[in-house]
Amino acid sequence: MRGLKGKNVLVTGGASGIGQATAQRFLEEGCSVSILDRDAAARARVSQELPELTAVIDADVSRLDQVRAAVATAIDRMGSIDVLINNAGISIRHDFLDITPENWDKVVGVCLTGIFYVAQTTARHMVEKGSGVIINTASTAGTTGYPHYADYSAAKGGVIALTHAMALELAPTVRVNAISPGYVLTPMQRAEYTDEMLAAVNRKIPMGRHAKPEEIAALFAFLASEDCAFATGQVYVMDGAETTGGLCSQWSHD
Hints:
By secondary structure, the chain is an alpha/beta fold. It has a 7-stranded parallel β-sheet with strand order 3-2-1-4-5-6-7, with helices on both faces. Helix 4 links the parallel strand 4 and strand 5.
């Protein structure tokens, strides 16, 4: 991608799944990459798998004090942050009537409040230096809603609205977009779904499968590059046409 070589990139939730694939893609593009993640085991693993990382930072995005310290560390290690991939997220599969206040606070705290904390802290740095790109991870759950994920859907809907508002306020200095993946075969997704559930999902996706994390990572790289210099305020859906079907609840290739 044009204009990525030499850029300094921070990826939140970067120690597994989409985040790790995205960190690897930006390394391949010639960027300096730091990741932020609260999972100690995942941080240890990714440090071995991606030794080229500039920094692997311990932080919980739902804690503002930890976010501020982590962003400061990334800036200190890389010199600046040119691109923020605001990706950290969690989900809990449960029925709406069973969601506890603690469940709600945990999911919304990471998936929406955490996105806000990291975006605002990093955006202040970008505005001061005069340029930057922020790409938030939303979800098709934020526009269509999914059963058993009401808190996650609500949070991701908030991310979409936040992205639009940020883009308007931060233009033209900072470009802000979001990616809304559909089903992606990440460790988080695999842990929550049986083989039968995964097969049922694949049957309703016209492409016939889940996305690979590397495919989402490629879109992050494109949106951060100079090839996308006029793109801001948009949410880019990558879901294998799952939501294109609208009211079609099942898809069949037969």
